[in-house]
Design a protein that fits this description.
By secondary structure, this protein is α/β, with parallel strands linked by helices. It contains 15 helices and 12 strands. Helix 3 packs antiparallel against helix 4 and helix 4 packs antiparallel against helix 5. The termini are far apart.
């Protein structure tokens, strides 16, 4: 048995132990399950309200009307669910955005249902109490159900236990084998359907045999393949075009993968630059509209915070002055958006005020430099509240990666190459890393890597809803106060 046969036999054995499903079937399953749950959540409160509160006899309850209304709501929400599931399975949406779509879908289904009931003249026959109860009671249930279902599916995909998209691979023998060995397609929801080696199809002029490409595409399109992957030199546009032109007659996704062992460098998409198409490696993390929305959110939130917290500021300032001589506030140089430096505002919690270019990081609560009132305001994060001034000035945001002193920023950047990527958006008073327990000192590589990965996740998945959720967690989650010093 040749080396290729051994490799593909191993791949086939791993695939044979996995659950194979169709992309459309999975979307339909999500739609059916969530649609039925939505219908039940709309029907149950109506029945409970009429039977237990209104004390109506079961025969007096307009069951058919409520069942029809609940079924219509379930059909609408199920349709939205199928669309959302498709985007999720195609990796176009992250989980927290999918949950936002669940909220919007439930609200839209409820609104459309009421509008249709009004047009049909039956809105007055429906109990407003039961409808409103069903809507608000259904929100957390549907959000939890979708989050749990998607998390379970994600775990099964990553474990290689669920494959729902068939792919066929075209390329030279060596490139194809390297791609399959490095790609771990079976752990990403893909199932290898077939391969075509271009080495065996070259004519005397070095061109790929056209009928062979057509026959290969026809075979695997007929067997339900959703992707044909061309593995080759991404710079050889003419060769890629010759293969791609033969595939344009088929309704199938055709993608190109560079023939390389490098799997860390990512291509995002293709964008037009003048008359040319260009491969994009990096994208601005936020559109201009998103930047404006976040800025308005920051200004409103910071202004409200400064007004409401002004009495607390006065009390804390007085306690600091009474305990030790020195200023109430201190300003320290930090590195922020696009690597630009600024001076961050904090309540003074220590007997020293270090510039940020030369300083010693606080190591635990036993640090002798920390004052008594300083220990309290650091533990409760009150010392960070003056950064609302930085938010007003446009140097910081309410939510974003926490900025570090310049000397620490340089040290951390040397230890982790991706650390500097946090500077692609404005730093924040609180952030996704902080509400997940990554705050305080960064004395180990695991702490640095954990904080950085959470910050980069936030940057890649920003939404105004995520900002609101992080602010809620900052106030109420115990994780946020973990490691506070």
């Amino acid at each position: 048995m040749s080396q290729d046969e051994v490799i593909f036999t191993g791949i086939e054995r791993r695939q044979s132990r996995r659950v194979v499903a169709n992309h459309i079937v999975l979307c339909a399953a999500f739609a059916l399950g969530e649609g039925l749950l939505a219908a039940l959540l709309m029907l149950a409160p109506a029945l409970v309200y009429h039977f237990l509160v209104m004390h109506l006899d079961p025969t007096e309850i307009p069951f058919a009307l409520y069942a029809a209304y609940a079924g219509f709501i379930g059909l609408l929400y199920g349709s939205f669910s199928a669309f959302s599931a498709g985007r999720f399975l195609e990796r176009e949406r992250q989980t927290h955005l999918i949950l936002t779509e669940s909220l919007l879908g439930w609200t839209a289904a409820f609104a459309i249902g009421l509008f249709v009931a009004f047009l049909l003249g039956v809105a007055g026959d429906l109990s407003r109490v039961s409808l409103i109860t069903g809507y608000f009671a259904g929100l957390p249930v549907l959000l939890f159900a979708r989050g749990a279902a998607y998390a379970l599916v994600t775990l099964r995909i990553r474990a290689g236990q669920l494959q729902f998209q068939k792919v066929a691979v075209v390329g030279s023998r060596g490139d194809t084998v390297r791609f399959l060995l490095n790609g771990n397609l079976w752990k990403a929801g893909y199932r290898l359907s077939g391969t075509l080696y271009v080495d065996d199809l070259l004519d005397g002029d070095g061109r790929v045999d056209r009928p062979a490409i057509i026959e290969f595409a026809q075979e695997w399109v007929g067997k339900g393949a959703e992707f044909i992957v061309i593995v080759g030199d991404i710079g050889d546009i003419d060769a890629l075009e010759r293969i791609a032109n033969e595939l344009k007659r088929y309704a199938i996704n055709v993608v190109c993968v560079p023939a390389t062992d490098n799997i860390s460098f990512k291509f995002l998409d293709v964008v037009p630059i003048g008359p040319n198409n260009a491969v994009r490696f990096l994208r601005k993390p936020m559109s201009d509209g998103a930047v404006l929305l976040k800025r308005v959110f920051d200004l409103v939130g910071a202004a409200i915070g400064l007004v409401l917290l002004s009495p607390l500021f006065a009390v804390v300032g007085l306690l600091i002055k009474l305990e030790t001589p020195g200023p109430v506030f201190f300003r320290q140089e930090r590195r922020g958006f696009n690597g630009e430096t600024f001076h961050i505002w904090k309540f003074r919690s220590m007997r020293v005020t270090e510039s940020g270019r030369k300083m010693t990081q606080v190591r635990g609560t036993s640090d002798s430099r920390i004052t008594r009132i300083g220990a309290f305001i650091r533990r409760t994060s009150i010392d960070e509240l003056p950064q609302l001034i930085n938010v007003i000035r446009g140097e910081m945001s309410l939510v974003g990666p926490r900025p570090h002193a310049l000397i620490h920023d340089d040290e951390l950047g040397e230890q982790l190459a991706s650390y500097a990527h946090r500077q692609r958006i404005k730093p924040g008073i609180t952030g996704w890393a902080q509400v997940n327990g990554y705050r305080g000192e960064t004395s180990t590589f695991e702490q640095i890597e954990g904080r950085t990965s959470h910050d980069l996740y936030y940057i890649d998945n920003w939404s105004i809803f995520l900002d609101c959720w992080i602010i809620v967690l900052t106030v109420f989650s115990a994780k946020t106060r973990r490691n506070a010093v």
